[in-house]
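Thread: "does anyone have the structure for this chain?"

Original post by V.I.:
We have the sequence but no experimental structure in hand. Need at least a predicted one for the grant figures.
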Amino acid sequence: MTRKKPEGFVDTLKTIVYAVLIALVIRTFLFEPFNIPSGSMIPTLLVGDYLFVSKYSYGYSRYSFPLGQYLPHFLSGRAFASEPERGDVIVFKLPRQEGTDYIKRVIGLPGDRVQVIQGILHINGVAVERRQLHDFRYRDGEGMLRNASVFEETLPGGRTHPILELTDTAPLDNTGVFLVPEGHYFMMGDNRDSSQDSRVLDAVGYVPRENLVGRAEILFFSIDGSFWQFWRWPHALRFDRFFMTLD
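Reply from O.Q.:
Generated one for you, tokens below.
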């Protein structure tokens, strides 16, 4: 007596395999989801925001692939590369810890001189225009309420974005001049007094072109609290942030 081939199980397995392969292709070459775990990009991005990053925006490197930090270094460089624009919000691999994703804004391009003087950003010796918009109150990573001010910053070329300032006398509000090397970028968080970014050379520093993962494009979900506490969703979901596009 011969057994019949369990075609139903095989078909289901094939469907699962195809679905996984399609998801991997989309994640590697098109869009990858990320969530925001810290407040370093407030007010642009809030803790609990979930967004899609376009993987094709700047071309592909070994970091475009899952666990790309373990791929051999002879695969260095970028294929189909294109340059970021000043002001882009970018996910990148931390140069000193390649398995860690950071998200910041591109402030300095290769060859730029970047400096902060009394809280005012200077690019190539010229102070960046900063205009106060309104007050802002938020909880920091330790749960403390903070009173801050939101400013609109206008980068060279006319692109604007909001920044958050607690004070103009914080440790990173007065820096030396940073000369951005060729093939690297200078990244800063919009929450200027609560962001570990390229101003901290021994922690982040200049970000190599190869480490860019993709450009933040659109928020698809936002929650004030834990994603898994679904019973709090009716009060915790930030519906006004759903499907927001990022400049």
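V.I.: this helps a lot. The chain is about 10% helix and 35% strand.
O.Q.: and The first strand starts at residue 31 and ends at 35.
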